[in-house]
User: Fold this.
Amino acid sequence: MNIDRYRSVITEKILRHSKVLEEYNILKYVPETLMFTPTESMLQKVLSRGVLRYIKAYLYEAALSYMGYALKTRQALTSLTLGSLSILRKKITYPNPYSEVYFKVNEKLLRLHETLKNVKVIKDLGGIVNYTVLAELRENSVRTVVMKKYRDWKAIKWVPTTLWIAGLVDFTPIPSERLLREIRALTTLLKHGFKVPCIYAVDWVNKVLVREYIEGLPLSNVIKEYKRTYEISYEAGKLLAEMHSRNIVFGDSRPSNIVYSNGILVPVDLEQSSTTIPASWDIAEFISFMSVDLYLKVKTILKAVENFIEGYLSVRRDKSIFHDAFKAKYIRILLPISPILPLVANHVKTLLEAKS
Ligand SMILES: Nc1ncnc2c1ncn2[C@@H]1O[C@H](COP(=O)(O)OP(=O)(O)O)[C@@H](O)[C@H]1O
Ligand SMILES: [Mg+2]
Assistant:
């Protein structure tokens, strides 16, 4: 089938149907880009919890009967026209619908789906959950990039998997949801003036994100350098407070997910960033993993935590968040990572009391 022959028919149909959607204030036509965008009021409505639940139930209901029908007709069709159908199938070419959905980064429109042909893998970056590699992107020029494939977690024994199972924190195991969370957090942080990796391309079908490579080292390494430990923990406290002031929660805030680049702390792994995770969680997770990066050396850790708190409070004067960060249920779940957490909790309590 030659899609160009039918283009005018399809366009006419799309325009006709979109008129109805415009009348109901669901879509808006943007003449400058020749595109449609969902209206603000529609998004508000759709994103409310009740409506989401309703849509889910509706989709199940609609999909179930359709699936039954599709299965029956497919069986009937294949038994009747197996040969001719396979010839037909080869000739049908159509664009992936996701490549016609766009989102805005830095005033530039990016496709939600692009077939990545011009990326060459250089080396593995050693992420635990995903397949994260350093790569080369050839477009107009050659760029060093990081390519991340969001893998399914279920098979991987990894701590946050237990977190997700425990249901304590709104972590998600679903690759498409993690990719969306990452894109949302990166674009929101960018809007607020944070330094974050720029998004270059997305392959929605294979759940791959291509983003800027940030020259530098992960905080988990830099914090080990004994001359840097306190300065870095202070800066990390500041970074988290700046994010929290904007209502952005990191989600998976371990030091290895932040890159130290020319004196600036850059968050790079935001796939768990969510509006429903409490900000105090970020603090509890950061401190737990930091204490492992500092080889569980108690004296160093306590001083690093003090600096972290100073940094945090210098931006956001909210002491209560540290009480929340060390509540029993967080300590219980993070104890296997950092056995000295109860000790840290006591120290923080004394510290905060002295401050008030
Ligand atoms: N944009 C980037 N620039 C520089 N280093 C990065 C970038 N993204 C990731 N890294 C490095 O690669 C590691 C793994 O990437 P990450 O996104 O955290 O994947 P995973 O979810 O598998 O942990 C990070 O810990 C970080 O050190
Ligand atoms: Mg990571």
